[in-house]
Amino acid sequence: MSGPVLAVEDLRISFGTHEAVKGLSFNIHARETLALVGESGSGKSATALAILRLIEREGGTIRSGRILLDDGDTTLDLRTLGDAKLTRLRGNAISMVFQEPMTSLNPVLKIGDQVAEVFIRHRSLSRRDALRAAQDALDQVRIPEPARRLDQYPHELSGGLRQRVMIAMALACRPRLLICDEPTTALDVTTQAEILLLIKNLQAEIGMGVLFITHDMGVVAEMADRVVVLRNGEKIEEALVEDLFARPQAAYSQRLMAATPKPGTGSSTRAAGTDIVLQVDSLSTRFASKAGLFSKAADGVLAVNGVSIKVARGETLGLVGESGCGKSTLARSILRLIEPESGTVLLDGKHLTGSSKAELRRSRKNAQMIFQDPYASLNPRLPVHELITEPARIHGLVSRKDQKDLAARLVARVGLETDAIHRFAHQFSGGQRQRLCIARALSVEPKLIVADEAVSALDVSIARQITDLMLELQDRDGLAFLFISHDIGVVERVSHRIAVMYKGEIVETGPAAQLLAAPRHAYTRRLLAAVPSGIPVRRRKQAPGVSAGETPAYLSASG
Question: What sections of the protein cross the membrane (predicted)?
């Protein structure tokens, strides 16, 4: 084997007095994928930014170490290079794909101009030739109708297509090293499977090394050749992917593997009640068309189409489906955060649909929602004791005099220290903030909690803690959950039953173990086929579905 494409030696990174990365060393060879895994704050993204020499823009400092890149002609120490040389290397010999393409793409520039800029900057092409090269780059990443996409803006593309555009830009100059920082975290499993396979195929074609940063161990099993496990900025373990999954050596690695949901390991066996808390019948929600002043309501998009579901006391109904299928719209329609077009919703036997604003406000005491981003859900200006008791105050369940006592009981209930009530949201980790959101929901003693991607942005160990907490609260208080997620492994673990949603309709519902073992609908089968196996030797050789942009014929169950 020739020398490595990238060699990181004794890397130390600090933010002020905090040492974020402590003497990290690893290397990556051509056509090799190294996965960097660990909890939030372990130093994964800081390492990636240091390699690109962007860490200084984030307030960080490289204290010591070498970052050696073989650019094909010579070996360069990126730490010693000036801005001009680094600018020539970024996007050329070394590229990066970030987690959220919408924040990485310029919303006011057309896709063609953004991809063409790479060729203009690094290949000195004319604008006409650069646009032609941009079209070829979009075609290379399997974007349908690449010529038409050149004139579109980022908001006109799906999340999966935007991520393909980011990959096209990153690979435009055939880099020696590609850094992928959580590139599939926000994507549903089918889109994720296509993106992962695309990266692997292009890696084999170009021969680049890949540094893959993720907290999804299923993705690690699918992608990595070797794995480096980080904790608090230190390398805890480095191993071949097969060895790490079969025989993790470090205690932290063992806990990380134990916290990873493994498809097929069984669903919830906890008993659920028979009293129906939520009953939804033939619910439909339409978004009005923006085509013109005189367009009819019937011309709008039918986001939820005749959905009927029910959830019993002490039961969790898992709701799964691809992005854009209507899951979140259904959740918001149930609680009348979005007004449904037709159908009925009964919460604890009382109608939510058709009720007055005063009646709806009283009924909402029985149903609370937990969102994906806990930081965006919490007012940064309020101390915790006000934040988590606000719903109780709104419903007249607690006075200002007694709110601190209630807050202390609530934080203890979700496993936080009592003194947390005097702090502010920014002083907590992501997992702790999600616990605060749960405490806030519990302040009114609800009978139903709607969890909309409540753990998808969290590390596997933190996500496991949050789902354990939800199960504990369910067992103790008989809470009903509508649990929305694109992570089938998590849904399997927490759900009694699963409902599968496709294009606004529920295409299949059943007991979790039964549905996952023997799915009846063709769309469910495709969805499950896209889930990473979590076992390195079972890597996918081809995408589980159609190419991006195609509309599969799933509407018959025998499909």
Answer: none
With a CB cutoff of 8 Å and minimum separation 6, the contacts of 511 are 267, 496, 497, 498
**HSE of 181 in the Cβ direction (CA atoms, 13 Å)?**
20
Q: Is residue 548 domain-resident?
A: no
Structural domains of the chain, count? 2
* CA 428 – CA 546 distance, rounded (Å): 42
Cα-Cα end-to-end distance for the chain: 47
Nearest Cα neighbor of 370 from 280, 469, 473, 483 is: 483
Task: Mark whether 156 and 284 lie in a shared domain.
Answer: no
547 within a domain of the structure (yes/no): no
Residues 157 and 280 in one domain: no
Question: What's the CA gap between 527 and 554, in Å, rounded?
Answer: 11
Cross-strand partners of 311: 278
Verify that 350 and 474 share a domain, yes or no.
Answer: yes
CATH number for position 512: 3.40.50.300
Helix H, strand E, coil C: the string for 367-391 is EEEECCCHHHHCCCCCEHHHHCCHH
State how far Cα 249 lies from the chain centre.
28
For residue 325, give both structure tokens. 């299928």
The model's pLDDT over 37-74, given as tens digits with 9 standing for 90+, comes to: 988 778 998 999 999 999 998 899 999 999 999 988 89
When pLDDT is averaged across residues 220-225 and rounded to a whole number, the result is 92
H-assigned helices in 64-110: 83-89, 101-104
Domain termination residue (choose one: 175, 193, 225): 175
Domain range for residue 116?
A: 99-175
- Is residue 83 assigned to a domain? no
Residue at which a domain ends, from 113, 143, 175: 175
Q: 486 exposed, middle or buried (CB, 10 Å; 0-12, 13-18, 19+)?
A: buried
Q: Which residues pair with 307 in a beta bridge?
A: 283
Element (H, E) at 286: strand 276-287
**DSSP run (H or E) holding 64:** strand 61-70
pLDDT of residue 179: 95
Task: Give mean pLDDT, residues 291-307.
Answer: 71
Q: Residue 253, Cβ neighbours under 10 Å: how many?
A: 21
Do 171 and 280 belong together in one domain? Answer: no
What confidence tens digit (pLDDT) does each residue in 481-528 have? 999 988 888 899 899 999 999 999 999 999 999 999 999 999 999 998
Are 150 and 139 in contact by the 8 Å Cβ rule? The answer is no
As beta bridge partners, residue 481 has 316, 449
224 pLDDT higher than 60: yes
What is this structure's pTM? 0.79
Domain identity same for 159 and 281: no
More confident residue, 323 or 329: 329
Instruction: State the DSSP code for 547.
Output: P
In Å, how far from its chain's centre is CA 184?
7
123 in a domain, yes or no?
A: yes
> How many other C-beta atoms are found inside a 10 Å radius of the C-beta of residue 403?
19
Within 397-446, strands assigned E span none
In the predicted structure, residue 415 carries a pLDDT above the cut 90 = no
Q: How far is CA 454 from the centre of its chain?
A: 10
pLDDT digits (tens, 9 = 90+) for 64-96: 999 999 988 899 999 999 999 998 899 889 999
